[in-house]
Amino acid sequence: MKTATIYSLLVTILTGLTAATASAADIACFGRILPNGGTVNVSAPSTDTIAEVLVHEGQQVKAGDVLAILSSRDVGQLQLEEAKLALAQAELERDSGVRMEQEKQQNLKDGLSDARERLKNLYTNKAEDYVSPEYIAEREGEIEDFEQQLKLSALEMEKLKRSTDMGVTRAQKQFAIAEAALADSTVRSPLGGRVLKVLGRPGEHVGPVLFMIGDVSSMFVRAEVYESDALRVKVGQKASIASAALPGKLSGTVESLGTMIYKSTLESVDATSQTGSRVVETLIRLDPNAWADRLINLQVDVVIRE
Asked: Total structural domains in the chain?
């Protein structure tokens, strides 16, 4: 049977899990209990092995907390120190080279200034003291020499800066690579929440998932509403959640509605019901309770009140 009303009655009769007071207008479907934002899988580079696991299942963690240390950390720390020293050396070579060239330029400028002053004095005193044309030509040539050396020094400075800046840039890139490699050797929590599952142990190679973490400060049911009922669901509607694994019913409120129709991922306990139903995701925020965060991923029966 395809209609949600008939399906709701079947679920009530065969499973005994839906509310006994559910009316024909209620919307029945399946769902799964999940933490706020779902379960987050935490992984690491797959070529590494685990050195230390610093958390246990059930532990609360904050975003950025260290969950595990990988075996590559020690090598990564050495490589980072080497890169740091190489960067410092490159910066020292650049700064000292520039400083020496600047001192050279300043000496040339001082020499040029002195040479110009001497020539000026020669012209000023030319009427009183005899100065040969050859001597004046030598002083003028001296000025030209200083000016030429300053031009060459400026070119040398430009060449030096290009060369040393390239060296510093290369060292900075190597430092960034080493820093990133070291960061990869430390597995951190991407969010604040509870460690739901530890899937790696010291000495093991890193698998696809090392930890599963969830924010259990608020719990949700991700309900799969049948496509025939999708337009009947509204944000703010109340919902009742039941399961044989729960000591009582849970209550909640529809918080968000999906817009994509997809094939159901949940299984019916009713062997006579149709499989592969087309559904739309509906998120229900659960009211505070003492059970939901202990039964994450539990499949439940949901009744949404119209």
From this structure: 2
Instruction: Assess if residue 131 is contained within a domain.
Output: yes
Residue 216 CA to residue 294 CA, distance in Å, equals: 9
Query: Whose CA is closest to 12, among 302, 305, 306?
Result: 302
Q: Are residues 207 and 271 in the same domain?
A: yes
Tell me the per-residue pLDDT of 28-46, one tens digit each, with 9 for 90 and over.
999 999 999 999 999 987 7
Q: Measure the CA–CA gap between 98 and 76, rounded to whole angstroms.
A: 33
- The first and second tokens of residue 165, run together, are 């800046």
Return the closest-CA partner of residue 285 out of 256, 243, 248.
Answer: 256
79 and 180 in one domain? yes
Candidate from 5-14, 28-37, 65-74 with smallest mean pLDDT: 5-14
H helical segments located in the chain = 4-15, 73-124, 133-184
Phi-psi region of 203 (alpha: psi -120 to 50; beta: other; left: phi over 0): left
CA 183/CA 235 separation, integer angstroms: 42
Say whether both 172 and 122 belong to one domain: yes
What residue numbers bound the domain in which 167 lies?
73-184
pTM of the entire structure? 0.64
